[in-house]
Amino acid sequence: MNKVLMISLAIVLGGCMSTDPYTGEQKTSNTAKGAGVGAITGALVGMAVSSKSDREKGALIGAASGAAIGGGVGFRMDKQEAALRAKLEGTGVRVIREGDNIRLIMPGHLTFDVDRYDVRSQFYGTLESVALVLKEFTKTNIRIGGHTDSTGSDSYNQTLSERRANSVGQFLIAQGVAAGRISTTGYGKRYPIASNDDAVGREANRRVELELVSF
Predict the structure, then answer these.
(1) 71: buried, middle or exposed (CB in 10 Å: 19+, 13-18, 0-12)?
(2) Domain 90-214, CATH
(3) CA nearest 186: which of 203, 169, 198, 204?
(4) Predicted local confidence at residue 25, as pLDDT
(5) Percent of the chain with pLDDT over 70
(6) Where are the domains of the chain?
(7) Between vectors from CA 31 to CA 26 and to CA 36, what angle results, nearest 5°?
(8) Shortest CA distance to 106 belongs to which of 134, 80, 126?
(9) Distance between CA atoms of 23 and 41, rounded to whole angstroms?
(10) pLDDT band for position 22 (cuts 50, 70, 90)
(11) Which of its termini does the chain have fewer beta carbons within 10 Å around, N or C?
């Protein structure tokens, strides 16, 4: 097992000197991290399904297979993240990487008019850019969540958040993104990202988020 751990460590360290193109900082790439995790997981599975005499061989085979799979997911998401950042630069949409998932935060004042749930025409170009990337990288599911501030009744906010999430989903489908990849949910005011005690915080809370989940 020590050999397997050394191989896995080498995979991770091999990616440690990659440069983040947006910050210039040195970091371990998500591809390398995924490969390392996949190698360790594959090694454990390989040992479990092998006979006692072949456990080391099974672990090495499992590690190699797991590294290829884990690294492949990380590589795809690295490319998708880079494409989204390039398309969305200067639009006000935030791109956040969370492991092998990507989250897009779309501020409500950019996406919708006050108390409306139809996408603003000024935002069409931004969503069209997102759709282009989603159609290129098809191995992700898209979870769309609508959020509001605390102003107004719970039932009103819940309905508004659902309609806004659905509007973004329908827009992406109209652009050619497969409907089977998209799910929409309204969260109302339940998950604020800022204080609702002032106008700036309430504006931040009125948003739609897209979570891109690899499969």
Answers:
(1) buried
(2) 3.30.1330.60
(3) 169
(4) 47
(5) 67
(6) 2-77, 90-214
(7) 100
(8) 126
(9) 31
(10) very low
(11) C
